[in-house]
Each structure stands twice: as C-alpha cells, then as structure tokens.
Specification:
This protein is an alpha+beta fold. It has three helices and nine strands, in the order αββββαβββββα.
C-alpha cells in the first residue's frame, strides 16, 4: 500500500490555484560496474499531478495549462530522446536506460514519489482540446512513495562529506 498522504500532497492545486508539485523526468543510464548516470532531464513546477494506482499499474498524469507550455516541450523532448536512445541500445543488444519520473511536494524534498522504467504518451485532458497532458504508466512494482528519515538525511550528508574529503 502506498503512502497516500504523500500522494495526496502532490496531487492537484493549492488554495492559490498553483500546482502542488515539482516534477522531474530524467533518463538514467546504468552500466554494469559503473555509477548510474543521468543522461538528460527536465523539470517543472507548472504541471498539475493526478495519480491512479491499480494492483498492476500506476498511472501518473502531468497536466499543463497550455499545449504550448515550455516545460511541456522540455519534458516531451526528454521522453522522445529516451525513445531514440532505447532504439540505439536495442540495436546492439544492450539495455541500460531507464525513464524516471520523480515528484515532490513543492518546497519539500523529504517526501517524493518515483516511477521507473515506464511508458509515456502525450494526450489531451478532454477530447475537444489539444494535447496538454503527459501520461506515464509504470508497472506497479516500479512505482512508490517514499519519505526520507532524519537518519537517512544525516547518513547522506556524512557520505557526501567523506567524498569531499577524499577529493581534496
């Protein structure tokens, strides 16, 4: 069962009519024996999030205010680049790329929702409108809502400081 509190904190708009979430779509490349690498990414604070979870799938809609929204174009470009990269990876038999969607409540980074290795499509919110929504569909086991504990944050800070000490 998902942490519905986190999901509710990113869905829809706030009292001022602004989107409640910060969304990021990125392409991750993971080669055996190497650190994962972010190949491309885009983010937005303008998309209104809607999430539907079934036993098999998690469906996430990012609805933009306009079909000409610059953030929509940037996120769409990352998704299209992912498709091209997957085609070239498939040609040589390798499969090291993942499309990752991450969403956090605006102004908070301890809570987040992540979907990995899913599908995407560009669609319209209503039949008579232009395409203004990016829909992501993730296998249920590749989708989750998480919260960082204070201990986890402290551990990440310690690891980062050790890395800085090593580099100096």
């Amino acid at each position: 069962m998902e942490n519905m509190e986190i999901i509710k904190s990113i869905e829809g708009v706030d009292e001022a009519g602004e989107a409640k979430a910060v969304c990021s779509v990125s392409i991750h490349k993971e080669m055996p024996g190497h650190e994962p690498e972010v190949v491309d990414s885009a983010f937005t604070m303008n998309a209104v999030v809607s999430i539907c979870i079934t036993p098999v799938w998690a469906v996430v809609d990012l609805r933009f205010s306009d079909r000409l929204d610059y953030d929509l174009f940037q996120m769409l470009q990352v998704c299209m680049d992912y498709m091209e990269m997957v085609k070239s990876d498939a040609a040589d038999g390798s499969r090291y790329l993942e499309l990752v969607l991450s969403i956090s409540p605006a102004g908070e980074y301890e809570q987040f929702v992540i979907g990995r290795d899913g599908f995407w499509s560009l669609m319209s919110e209503r039949l008579e409108k232009y395409c203004d929504t990016l829909r992501f569909i993730f296998p249920r086991e590749q989708f989750g809502a998480y919260e960082l504990t204070e201990e986890a944050v402290e551990q990440m800070i310690e690891e980062a400081s050790r890395e800085v000490d090593v580099e100096i």
